[in-house]
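Hello forum,

I keep getting stuck at the same step: I have a sequence, I want structure tokens, and every attempt I make locally crashes halfway through. Rather than fight my setup again tonight, could one of you with a working pipeline run this one for me? It's a single chain of 53 residues.
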Amino acid sequence: MMVMNDRKRRFLIYQTLVMAEIVRDFYKKNPIRYKFYRHNCGRDQRLKELWGE
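Reply #2:
Ran it on my machine without issues. Output:
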């Protein structure tokens, strides 16, 4: 079992918070990239396939 020291634990928490801040409101900050992602991920197409219009 690996024991995590305090510095490493704090860094991981910080890294997680930074990533959360980056992805927050991505669709507002990068609307073109978000639309491209949303179309290409296939989620909307799959939902239409399962649930219809």
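The CA atoms of residues 11 and 17 lie 10 Å apart. If your local run keeps crashing, start a new thread with the error log.
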